[in-house]
Structures are given as C-alpha cells and as structure tokens.
Amino acid sequence: MAAIEIALVEKYNAIVILTDRDGDKKSQRLDNIRRGRDEMGYEYPRSAVGQAVEAFDAWMVVDGNALQAAGATGKQSHTDPETLDGKNDDRDPKVLAMKYLGGSDGLGKKYAAIAAALDIELLDKCCPKGFRPFGKEVKENIAPKLSPDCRN
Fold it and tell me: Could you read off the pLDDT of 58-76 as tens digits, one per residue?
C-alpha cells in the first residue's frame, strides 16, 4: 500500500484509490486493495477505494451535458456504461469518449472538465456496481473531513 504510506509521510488529509476492473481476472483487485488498506494496522488518512466497471473512462461518457461542457459537439452519452467491456470499438469507453470529444488530444483535461460538470446522481444511477459503492466511501470517509466550502 505504497500510496497510503506516501500519504502518511506527506500528511495528506485523504487519499482516493481507483482502479479499473477490466475483466473477470482482475475483478478481485478491489478486495485485495481494501484488505491491504484495512490490515495496515496503523492510522492512515481517510480513504475511498473504488473500482470502475469495466473502466474509469466509462464514467466519463454518462452525462451528455458534462460531455458538452468538455467540448463535445452533440448531446451524446452512454446510459449503460457498465456494459462497455472494450471487446470492440463500439463497446470501448475510451474509444467512445474520443468519438464524443473529437479525438484523443487533451483527453485528460477534457476528463477534468467532465468531472467538474458531471451529474453525480446520474453517474450513481447508471453505475451501480462501480461508482455507487465508491461514491458511498467518498461520502462516508472523505467528505466529513473536508472544509464546508469544498463539500459541494
């Protein structure tokens, strides 16, 4: 759990660990990370651990309004992102994000713009396996430690 050890040394207030599931063989990843966090045996920063189903990019294609805020030309979105398993281009969330956003240039910055505009309730509704438990950990473990002006 090097990330948590670094957070302790650097005196972070909180840490978020997010991984992609990317298929059945890696579905145990989340349990291993949580177990490692919980077994550390010493005080660690507040943390939220989550696993996107199947990939983090799927969360970025849920909200058409947020996509438009990041530069998408149409109101495109995918309302069932947890079915995007990457088995072909039509089911690859990163390919869809690039299609909606006009290419791969600056995808990280575009994802930041999406995250800032994203309807969290919509994401929670559309991603019950991945985002919902992660969002719950953020609300329970991290949000109480934030100053009031950072909670919204």
Answer: 999 999 999 999 999 888 9
Side-chain half-sphere CA neighbours of 115 within 13 A: 9
Partners of 51 in the β-ladder? 19
Cα(48)–Cα(18) distance, rounded to whole angstroms?
8
What would the DSSP string read from start to end of the chain? Answer: -HHHHHHHHTT-SEEEEEEE--SGGGTTHHHHHHHHHHTS-S---EEEEEEESS-HHHHTTS-HHHHHHTT-SS----S-GGG---SSGGG-HHHHHHHHHTSSTTHHHHHHHHHHH--HHHHHHH-TTTHHHHHHHIIIIIGGGS-GGG--
Q: How many whole angstroms separate alpha carbon 117 and alpha carbon 130?
A: 19
- 23 pLDDT more than 70: no
Q: Which two tokens stand for residue 33?
A: 């990370």
